[in-house]
Design brief:
Elements: H1 2-20, E1 27-34, H2 41-60, E2 68-75, H3 80-93, E3 98-101, H4 105-118, E4 121-124, E5 144-146, H5 151-165, E6 170-176, H6 180-195, E7 199-206, H7 214-223, E8 227-230, H8 234-246, E9 252-255, E10 273-276, H9 285-298, H10 304-323, H11 328-337, E11 340-342, E12 345-347, E13 359-365, E14 368-375
Parallel strand pairs: 1-2, 1-3, 3-4, 4-5, 6-7, 6-8, 8-9, 9-10
Antiparallel strand pairs: 10-13, 11-12, 13-14
Helix pairs in contact: 2-10, 3-4, 5-6, 10-11
The structure holds phenylalanine.
């Protein structure tokens, strides 16, 4: 008799547990698209970690609108082709209507076109090229957002910092024509640097496959500019900076958010500066709270990619909660009109779905990345 009661009790308990775990409960699916392999794999790892931390926190609090959040993660490799197939897969096969990603502008732009055509919602944590949220005709893509500032601002901050803080009068700029982010940021830097009275002595292009930069570095050596602007990702600037050092180039190296990686080669970048979205040294409580939660979960300090992915997930989920249902168009409307007090700043959206927020300037010094300055728009 006792055994039978115990058995029935055990059955009831396991049915209850199953229901609480989502067996039969409502769920909402969110896809995370990020480069988890290849040249910039640290970007993907940080992005996934940051987004997952936010989503787990929401699930622990009971989910969003009573639904538990399910995730599907795809390696979109920071490339247009991989991103297109990853986006089609998560939408058509997994049934995701919400996408966090991609990291790189060249991948986020093609995803945004699919998203618009299929009525899906996208928020890129870190893609800074203006064309992610705005089409060629200048129209804002209705369901596409980002959690970061855009390159016209970032490039201006770098040019102004070079002139005002470094006293630079001349610059050299290297760019990869085939990369939307790199090309866009280089163009802004050149225009702003010249508009502030600076002179561009060298402007050279390379392609994504190049490994040997000695020919264009010789031109820099001969021109001897005050700064060398390198608006590419860490894997490429590591190569360029090592070869520049070998050549004895003394120009101060300057870059953008693409340098942000635990794999940035700090020895060859020594004395360099870069613009970024976030510093874990920021003393604001909201930042330090996030840093300690992230550290205790992953055993590493969060970079800007982790912080912005955490922010992007929180913006999406807060908007979904205020929309009251997981409908992409309604969540987009709630994003447009919402106020989001997230880690990288208090965000609200302009007409082009870009948050208005500050940038930080960081310095590579003594094998460390040091916080220098915060620049408001
Ligand atoms: N801003 C870069 C792009 O648009 C991506 C990036 C952001 C990389 C932040 C590193 C850190 O492609």
């Amino acid at each position: 008799m006792r055994a039978r009661v115990l058995l029935i009790l055990a059955l009831v308990v396991s049915i209850l547990a199953l229901t609480a775990c989502g067996g039969g409960g409502k769920t909402v699916k969110i896809a995370i698209l990020a480069p988890l392999s290849g040249d910039v794999a640290t970007f993907g790892e940080s992005t996934r970690n940051g987004a997952m931390l936010a989503i787990e926190e929401w699930n622990e609090k009971g989910g969003v609108n009573g639904s538990q959040i399910e995730t599907v993660v795809e390696d979109s490799q920071c490339s247009a082709e991989a991103a297109v197939s990853a986006a089609n897969k998560v939408i058509d096969q997994d049934g995701a209507k919400f996408i966090i990603g991609e990291v790189c502008s060249s991948a986020s732009i093609p995803i945004s076109e699919i998203v618009v055509a299929k009525g899906v919602y996208q928020i890129s944590p870190t893609s800074t090229n203006p064309s992610v949220t705005v089409d060629e005709g200048g129209n804002t893509k209705s369901s596409v957002f980002r959690a970061c500032f855009i390159d016209p601002f970032q490039g201006k901050v770098a040019a102004k910092f070079a002139i005002d803080n470094l006293g630079a009068k001349t610059a050299a700029v290297f760019l990869d024509q085939g990369n939307d982010y790199v090309r866009g940021l280089a163009e802004v830097f050149i225009a702003e640097f010249e508009a502030m009275g600076g002179q561009i002595l060298v402007k050279e292009t390379y392609t994504g496959d190049d490994q040997d930069f000695s020919a264009i570095l010789t031109k820099v050596k001969d021109a001897n500019p005050d700064v060398l602007y390198l608006p590419d990702y860490y894997s490429t600037v590591n190569l360029i900076a090592a070869q520049a050092k070998e050549k004895g180039i003394t120009a101060v190296m300057l870059g953008g958010d693409g340098w942000d990686s635990s794999d940035l080669d700090l020895s060859v970048m020594e004395g360099g500066f870069y613009t970024n979205h976030f510093s874990p040294d920021d003393t604001r409580a909201v930042v330090q709270d996030f840093v300690s939660k992230y550290e205790s979960k992953y055993g590493a300090r969060p970079d800007a990619l982790a912080a912005l992915a955490y922010d992007a997930a929180n913006i999406l989920l807060q908007a979904m909660e205020s929309a009251g249902e997981a409908d992409p168009a309604k969540v987009a409307a709630a994003t447009e009109s919402g106020k989001f007090p997230v880690v990288s700043g208090d965000i609200s959206y302009d007409a082009q779905h870009n948050p208005v927020k500050a940038a930080v300037v960081l310095k590579v010094e003594g094998g460390k990345v040091m916080y220098m300055d915060t620049v408001a728009p």
